[in-house]
Amino acid sequence: MAKADDTTDDDGLALSFGRRLAELREIAGIDGTELGRRVGMSQAHVWRLEAGRAVPNLRTMARIAVALDVSLSALVADVDCSSVELRNRDYVRHKPVRS
């Protein structure tokens, strides 16, 4: 099963978000290390986001927006979501582990 930040099907979305994040970070005049410190994540994870290798969840996006002093809508403004496919994802049911 894919992880929540897996970009296998959403590479275009991840790349577009990453470009927007890098743009806003540069406008704020901070580097990836400082953004990571403000958000509470590693600089490596900031790099993964900016490189389009991960897509953040809503809570992380909200923390990033606060750290950059922009609204959540400004953070995702102009992010291209045209590559997102609307389709059912495989559902894997796991049996409960008994001890």
Automatic annotation (TrEMBL):
GO CC aspect terms: cytosol
A GO molecular-function descriptor: DNA-binding transcription factor activity
Domain of life: Bacteria
Domain HTH cro/C1-type: 21-75
SMART domains: HTH_XRE (SM00530)
Entry keyword set: DNA-binding
UniProt xrefs under SUPFAM superfamilies: lambda repressor-like DNA-binding domains
InterPro entries, A to Z: Cro/C1-type_HTH, Lambda_DNA-bd_dom_sf, TransReg_Diox_bact_type
Descriptive protein name: Helix-turn-helix domain-containing protein
Taxonomy of the source species: Bacteria, Pseudomonadati, Pseudomonadota, Alphaproteobacteria, Sphingomonadales
